[in-house]
Amino acid sequence: MDSTVLLHLLCRWRDRNEHGDVALQAIHVNHQLQSHASDWQRHCQRVCQQWDVPLIVEAVDIDLHQSSPEQAARDARYRSFNKHVSEAGTGAVLMLAHHRDDQVETLLQRLARGSGPLGLGAMLPVTERLNMSVFRPLLEQDREQLANYAAEQKLVWVEDPSNQNDQIERNYIRRQILPAWRKIKPQLNQTIARSARLNQEASALLDQLAALDMGPPRADQGLAIGQLTGLALPRQKNLLRYWLVRVGALAPSETLLLRVIREVLPAADDGSPMVEWGALSIRRFRQHLYLAPSHLESDSLPELGRFGSVAALDGLASSLGVLRVDHPFDGAGASQHGAPDGQLETGFSLRRLQAAPLQLSLRTGGERVKPAGQLTKPLKHWFQALTVAPWLRPYWPILYCGDQVAGLPGLLVCDGFEPESEQDRVVVTWHWRIPVPVID
User: Fold this and answer.
1) pLDDT tens digits along 60-82
2) Has residue 319 been placed in a domain?
3) Domain holding 235: CATH number?
């Protein structure tokens, strides 16, 4: 019902718009979890056709082995929303039909989990999620008000039978707890929603304090250990929480925050301390904390093998990064792509690279290299000297020319492979697609 009411209201707004510059598009995500899922999809298609609204339908696969199937479905839904909102272009926003009853249920769920002000703020009327703007224009309306509107407008909708399953926590709150509670407190929705707003204000103030404690954000998304060590424990937790959310993680539990404070902060850098957090990990490197993937998959690197020319290396991409090749001599000596922060614009001799077949390889251990003007030492030494984070070292591509190491793109050029002139200079760099520490 909620989404049907929202779409109907938006259609009325579109039709009354004098400038005709309101473009609506509906998204139906088919979770394929219910036997009637196809019927619901056809219902959405009929309604959108009747109201002249373009409809996107996307079927998603849900991992039911996760601890919360509801969360898995929600994550899949938002990934779909994000994809289609991004494709809609600049100015597109996502409108959701959450109402005040949803807000009350969300706050009570989070209260039962022991959430702090951020969680107890529940849902914001306007927020950013996955780099898209999310609006909830019905958040100040009760479900009963929406039901009355739907009846007045003779709207037709379908009910999800899973909403009757009291084994699901949200349904139990909605069907068992709240009706009994409202008998003795009729204004329950308004008072709990007010509590959510007050928690949102408190959370915003805590964010302002954390921003002061953190100082200017770093380009590499790291957090200096020194920003934490002088703070009392509550402010340490507040700053860590703020930093993690700011770099794209979900709000962490207090248990996780305490593990970072007790295990990672006091540890020595050379021990590569870390705390794993699902698919992510919080790592310490050179007096900074970083959020990084827990495990990098070697098969997600570009296909390794021999290439016939330097140009064939350009654009090799993976989930970890992309290789770029530039021949900067164009009369001005400018490189097209440039080097990422923390990397060198490694210039190789084009003549030398053309002298033998090229090959990309990963580190296997025991490699010894001789950078231009330096002594021959183990590759491990040069990784340390050039402050490469330990979790990146196994995945930094090594460029071979014949059976010789020519260098590591974006990191070093080996002796004998430096360019003889600007015309002979070709720049090969590796652009990571994950946050990379940049040590000052």
Assistant:
1) 887 766 657 777 888 888 888 98
2) yes
3) 1.20.59.20
Between the two ends of the chain, the Cα-to-Cα distance in Å is: 55
Place of tokens 């404690």: 213
Burial of 24 (0-12, 13-18, 19+ CB in 10 A): middle
Q: What is the DSSP code (8-state) at residue 439?
A: -
Q: Please state the rounded mean pLDDT for residues 409-429.
A: 91
Note the pTM of the prediction, 2 decimals. 0.78
Q: For residue 258, name the pLDDT band (cuts at 50, 70, 90).
A: very high
131-135: Cβ within 8 A, 24+ apart: 131/82, 131/86, 132/81, 132/82, 132/85, 132/86, 132/92, 132/93, 132/94, 133/93, 133/94, 134/93, 134/94, 134/96, 135/93, 135/94, 135/95, 135/96
304 or 23, which is more confident? 23
Q: What is the DSSP letter of 161?
A: G
Q: Is the pLDDT of residue 189 over 90?
A: yes
The Cα–Cα gap between 313 and 348 comes to 13
Q: Could you tell me the CATH number of the domain that includes residue 97?
A: 3.40.50.620
Give me the mean pLDDT over the 148-156 stretch: 95
Residue 415 · residue 373 · CB < 8 Å: yes
388, with CB counted inside 10 A (0-12, 13-18, 19+), is buried
Cα–Cα distance for residue pair 439/392, rounded to 1 Å = 14
Phi then psi dihedrals of residue 249, to 5 deg: -90, 165
Residue 306 has phi, psi (to 5 degrees) of -95, 145
Residue 332: predicted pLDDT:
44
Encoded tokens for 380: 């491990």
